[in-house]
Amino acid sequence: MAQRPDDSFEITARARGLLRVAGVDEVGRGPLCGPVTAAAVVLDPAHVPVGLDDSKKLSAKRRAELVAEITAHADWCVAHASVEEIDALNILQASHLAMMRALAGLRRAPDHVLVDGNRLPKTLTLSAEAVVRGDARSVSIAAASILAKEARDALMVDLAQQYPGYGWERNAGYPTKEHRQALLDLGVTPVHRRSFRPVHNILCQVKSVSP
């Protein structure tokens, strides 16, 4: 039976007196373009939406429904790190920067933070723990994963209108066959991550054939 997130991490933290527990997750580490997006969510224990799960396992319709339920009762914030920050810092550090911005945007600082993955942001000074596969284990992290994915997907749809032909409304900037071919045919846009190998290689090819 597939694992579903529950509130065991949150219950354990609250038993220690850490009442405001925030889940934090990011999306967009793998795409070749666009920002990396993170969300922080402090769920109301009395209003935990039914059916929270890893955002990748949910249909777009179900994610949209859960976004409405999460934002109606939770303290939440979505934040980004830009393409320029990704290229300057590296994708891991940019992801952590987006997470810290999301935490800073909450109405009130949490008492404890559950971070998806195996590393905590170096600048995080709050009580925290890293939770591997957290979006499949913690309801708070699952809620954050849903908000982050919906926000970034919507942003990529907007960028697809500005830069048509790359299929971002379908692939969200991930290196699909369609996206890679468009890079060869149409070139690199200002919102592509120049530090990522497929983009970097194309830029090097263009530079090598320039007069």
UniProtKB/TrEMBL annotation:
Keywords, ordered alphabetically: Cytoplasm, Endonuclease, Hydrolase, Manganese, Metal-binding, Nuclease
Essential cofactor(s): Mg(2+); Mn(2+)
MF annotations from Gene Ontology: manganese ion binding; RNA binding; RNA-DNA hybrid ribonuclease activity
Binding site for a divalent metal cation: D25, E26, D116
PROSITE patterns found in the cross-reference section: RNASE_H_2
InterPro entries associated with the record: RNase_HII, RNase_HII/HIII, RNase_HII/HIII_dom, RNaseH-like_sf, RNaseH_sf
Pfam families in the record: RNase_HII (PF01351)
GO cellular component: cytoplasm; ribonuclease H2 complex
Major place of residence: cytoplasm
Biological process terms in GO annotation: DNA replication, removal of RNA primer; mismatch repair
EC nos: 3.1.26.4
HAMAP family tied to this protein: RNase_HII_B
Sequence similarity: Belongs to the RNase HII family.
Protein name: Ribonuclease HII
Gene: rnhB
